[in-house]
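Students often ask why inverse folding is considered easier than folding. One informal answer: many sequences map to the same fold, so there is more than one right answer. In these notes we will look at a single instance of the problem. The structure comes first.
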């Protein structure tokens, strides 16, 4: 295998590291294999022990390399939306008083001006999405290269993350023996594979039910418009099962996976299974319905929390509704529960490729697809941010002057109605737990949510 054309997507989650290895050769993107391996050293999407994360990443990449008969030098890494802030920006440079052809270097310089204009203390630029270029202040183009210009202006969106968090990730990757090509916001990666062009344009909500947190991200006109984060996820559901049933976390996880439903109405009161309780000689019999009530109670907390922000920003009226990913998307009935709670369309996304048919691979697969489709302009933007180190593939070494293969992806979006509502949310997941200001919410509460023991569990967990 020619390792130099490999694209490797790395998604470091709270509970697992996901790796997808694909080939970006002339025949188009071909997936060779994927691995999900347990993570240690992460909490709510952030690194709390660099060495443990490095070892987790190293193990996952080793498994992926063995599975695909490849040696992995470099990866494209996802960043959780909870780390990110968006800033609208403009940059302008003079080309020549007489006018001349715009070069790659000119595009780099105007992007540098735009990115530098929003530089903030303790935050680092991780992505730049140019919306449009203006030649001589009047001609609006997508790609100004080789056009005659006296001046060049760019408008776009800069995404920044805490410099300390970026340092921690890069250090963990270095300790694992690999280099990072560039970072991609996780929702942008998922949207490149989970949404079609119409959904990206007219609007959809990506609901990522992850291990350590839950995020809901609004994608419209091809860009992130708003996001809300709840620092509760699959780990909390498992913990609830462990506490209520007095069993270990590993047993609780197995019970959730094998017998749990997102909606208790889908579960059976008569179907029962044995639970080994801590400190007891005999196992307890628990019904599917009882287990699902525990799961449902925590899910309702999470969905109510993220739904509040979505309602306030008018996102629940988007035509594509919810696209659900993440490990908890495997809970039976989760799509119906989301659709019922929010009164919108909802569907589960998982990659269609053999070996990837699991929602947990959505981000990692999206990373390789995103990188493969990256336009020349997008690639230049990455080289500005990452100082010419934003290699597109798995090459061990490469001269910065050696142009990468053509990676085409349209990135232009009109800058209409750009209020950047995303930045108005609290990214640490500490919004209050009040209900949605929806006049129909109380009716939904009494009609849909008081199911059996769920009311008791909601009070217990609150």
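Output (designed amino acids):
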């Amino acid at each position: 295998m020619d390792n130099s054309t490999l694209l490797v997507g790395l998604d470091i989650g709270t509970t697992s590291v996901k790796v997808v290895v694909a080939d970006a050769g002339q025949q188009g993107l071909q997936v060779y294999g994927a691995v999900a391996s347990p993570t240690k050293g992460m909490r709510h999407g952030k690194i709390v022990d660099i060495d443990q994360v490095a070892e987790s990443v190293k193990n996952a990449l080793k498994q992926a390399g063995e599975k695909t008969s490849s040696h992995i030098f470099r990866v494209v890494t996802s960043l959780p939306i909870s780390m990110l802030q968006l800033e609208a920006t403009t940059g302008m440079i003079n080309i020549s008083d007489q006018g001349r052809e715009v070069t790659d270097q000119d595009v780099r310089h105007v992007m540098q001006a735009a990115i530098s204009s929003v530089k903030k203390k303790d935050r680092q630029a991780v992505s730049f999405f140019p919306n449009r270029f203006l030649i001589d202040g009047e001609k609006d183009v997508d790609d100004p290269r080789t056009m005659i210009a006296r001046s060049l202006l760019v408008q776009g969106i800069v995404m920044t993350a805490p410099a300390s968090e970026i340092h921690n990730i890069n250090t963990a990757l270095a300790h694992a023996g690999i280099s990072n090509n560039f970072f991609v916001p996780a929702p942008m990666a998922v949207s490149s594979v989970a949404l079609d062009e119409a959904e990206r344009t007219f609007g959809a909500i990506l609901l990522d039910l992850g291990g350590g947190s839950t995020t809901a991200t609004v994608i419209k006109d091809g860009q992130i418009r708003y996001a809300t984060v709840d620092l509760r996820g699959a780990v909390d559901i498992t913990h609830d099962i462990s506490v209520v049933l007095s069993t270990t976390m590993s047993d609780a996880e197995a019970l959730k996976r094998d017998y749990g439903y997102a909606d208790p109405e889908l579960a059976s009161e008569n179907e029962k299974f044995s639970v080994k309780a801590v400190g007891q000689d005999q196992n307890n019999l628990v019904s599917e319905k009882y287990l699902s009530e525990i799961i449902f109670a925590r899910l309702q907390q999470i969905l109510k929390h993220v739904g509040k922000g979505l309602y306030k920003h008018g996102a629940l009226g988007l035509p594509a509704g919810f696209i659900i990913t993440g490990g908890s998307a495997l809970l039976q009935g989760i799509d119906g529960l989301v659709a019922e709670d929010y009164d919108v369309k909802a569907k589960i996304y998982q990659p269609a490729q053999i070996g990837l048919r699991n929602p947990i691979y959505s981000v990692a697969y999206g990373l390789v697809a995103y990188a493969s489709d990256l336009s020349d302009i997008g690639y230049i933007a990455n080289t500005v941010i990452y100082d010419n180190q934003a290699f597109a593939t798995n090459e061990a070494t490469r001269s910065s002057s050696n142009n990468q293969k053509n990676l085409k992806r349209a990135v232009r979006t009109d800058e209409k109605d750009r209020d950047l509502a995303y930045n108005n949310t609290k990214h640490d997941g500490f919004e209050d737990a009040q209900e949605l200001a929806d006049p129909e919410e109380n009716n939904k509460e009494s009609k849909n949510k008081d199911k059996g023991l769920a009311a008791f569990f909601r009070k217990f967990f609150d």
